[in-house]
Amino acid sequence: MKFSDWTAKDVEERILEMAETLRRMPAARGPKAFGSAMPETVRSVSEAFGYQPARYRQTASAGALGRMEGVFGWINALSDENERKLIYAWSWVKVRKGVTIARFAEENLLNERTLRRAITAICQSIADILNQKGQFRLGGADLQVSETQADITSTTVSSEKCVTHWRDSDAKPHIDPALAPLRVIETRQARAR
After folding, report:
1. Angle, vertex CA 27, rays to CA 25 and CA 30, nearest 5
2. What H or E segment, with its residue span, contains residue 127?
């Protein structure tokens, strides 16, 4: 396997993936005060199924959920509470629409460059912790668990050695060719078993 060390940019990408995965999670709906579980009745043609284009909401994959939990652990392991709050809020603003990074920096009494340096410093401290603990990342883009490059050259095995190395040269098969009808299982015999 090809391992590589964590960098601040790698950690930042994982944090943004965590926020994107969290954004894709289905919203928790509480109990309704009034209403029923039955769908609304169709009162006009425009409300009928198939009249308007279907809507699709992309959900998070299982791998993304697992990586999200890991990133939660990284961020929660930071000793400074302000850094934890800043990285969570920054990642949430970064993946959402509506609030710009400049406005977010202004709300936190920072300019954009100072915010960028703070985020990079936090990500670098997380990367340093991960590298010290030996939690290396795989070099592949999809973070596979298997080998990412073919380091081991494949060797071919000759078929004659593979087949005959365990039996004698004058060996006979276990099935007697004279009993050909008994080699086929009939459906009645199969049901009787």
Report:
1. 145
2. helix 112-133
Q: Is 143 left (phi over 0), alpha (psi -120 to 50) or beta?
A: left
Burial class (CB in 10 A: 0-12, 13-18, 19+), 136: middle
Confidence of residue 1 (pLDDT cuts 50, 70, 90): very low
CB proximity list for 184: less than 8 A, separation 6 or greater: none
3 state SS of 96: coil
pTM for the predicted model, two decimal places? 0.60
CA angle 137–138–141, rounded 5-degree value? 110
Amino acid at 5: D
In sequence order, what E strands does 21-147 have? 137-138
d(CA 133, CA 129): 6
